[in-house]
Amino acid sequence: MAPNSIEVMWGPGLIGFIIATVFYGISFGQYMFYLRYFPQDSKRLKLFIMTVFLFETINQFALMAVYWSILISCRRSTSLECTTEFPWQMLLGLFLSFSVIFFVQCFYAYRVWIITGNNHWVTGIICVLATTSFVCGMIVGGLGIYTRSPEVLFSSKWSPIASFISALCDSVITVSIWLFMRPARTGNVRRKSRNYINDMMWVFINMGLFSCVVAISVTVLYMFQDGLIGQFYTAAPGAMLGKSYMNSMMAVLNARKSIREREQRGYNLTELPTIPTIR
């Protein structure tokens, strides 16, 4: 790539990388919080969370290596590798990002399976959408391996397709949780428990909408950059995509602590004697 085009080509990606680094710091804090306050979770769940966090950590280091190579190592280099190819770490980061998204959506699919009372149709739709998005992401990675060209990688139609399907999957998850946890369906649950269910529902919804918005932004920016040579606007939300899903999942898991504490305080208050009965 020409030296004078670095700012135009990778400026959006660098901005996205900086924001993604902040997101990673938040997810690191959330993971430490999870390890401290939920040691009683099943080994299978803790292994799953550890795997997703490990993937996200490697993805973060891969992004660091990418922008170190582009902005530092190859800043004034005219070598063939620097001018025509992008770092292999970018492909690694891409694979890990789509893998994290797929894992988190599978996590939500299992939660929907429980919440909906083993509804095969709803869970099946979510699984199909999550798998389709992952396959489209792997196609993007395959094109990158074949061409070794950033133009092909960021201009491929498969990238916005993967992001759009991922956003659609998030929408199905969010709507399903709202439909099956809304007050109209939990009317037979006593009031205090119903309040905590409602709180948990809104945590699910807000986190689902957060990752959905980031995914949609990839599609929107792809349409905006369409026809503009050497301008990779989709690199900005692309860098944040996996970390938004990681934070979404961790926020849902960690929200249990505050909700359980409030529930416990509510039980303790109901057990206190009224003033006239105190001896």
From TrEMBL:
Coiled-coil stretches: none
UniProt KW keywords: Membrane, Transmembrane, Transmembrane helix
Domain of life assignment: Eukaryota
Residue ranges of every copy of the DUF6534 domain listed in the record: 166-258
TM stretches of this protein: 14-35, 47-70, 90-110, 122-146, 158-181, 202-224, 236-255
Keyword DNA-binding: no
InterPro entries cross-referenced by the UniProt entry: DUF6534
Record-linked Pfam families: DUF6534 (PF20152)
Protein name: DUF6534 domain-containing protein
Species this chain originates from: Suillus discolor
